[in-house]
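User:
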Amino acid sequence: MLVALIMALVVVGSLVFHFLSPWRPTQIASNWGFIDDTLSLTFIVTTIGFVAVILFMSYCLYRFRHQSGRRSTYEPENRRLELLLGGITTLAVILLLAPGLSVWGSFITPPEGAMEVEAVGAQWSWSFRLPGADNQFGATDVRFIDAANALGVNPADPKGRDDLIISNGELHLPEGKPVKVLLRSIDVLHDFYVPELRAKMDLVPGMETYFWFTPTKTGQFEILCVAYCGIGHAQMRGALFIDSESDYRNWLAAQKSFAQLRKTEAF
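Assistant: Predicted structure:
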């Protein structure tokens, strides 16, 4: 009897904690409200399952508790019950997975004309590259990485000479324009994450991953690495600034190209 009561109180306490908790997602600053909706649906489905299972167990503990003179019956199979539980479980799994698959398909399908930005992770800092006037990235290779070329841009590729290199961990983007973020790791597994954008993706050594988003609010946001990448993992942070069009153009004009940086290093 006591255990049944405690289990029922666990359900009540969990629901009260959820609805009164001060911890909520950060205010969204991108087009990915679908991700919030999918998370909400997940909470609803799992909450229904949690409440139903725990209260049913509590009921069984009370209803079928030991009583003098009562005998239990043995029922190894109940086809109707199995079909009911199997059907409910199947429906719950579909509700959990189908929206996520749909959102994932959109998450990795950038719109035509989206501007491209490359984010490069290395223990333990963020660097960025933007295409120059030709709107094309130059080729890269780890063999070209050195103190003067941290991103490994191929010096012989003319497409890379006007690429803009940002090595201070601060990236600026214009408000309201879709952005395709190309992700590359120099060393180990990293993960690019901006909570307000609801956007994250692994950086896998030896391959290029990507995702896209449209920033919807100006402001400064923190770029985090959320894949444990070594002793300096907690310090691997960058800054994302979402600017008005004019502010973004002013910032862009102040950045140096790969060719300019190479010329500076030569002196």
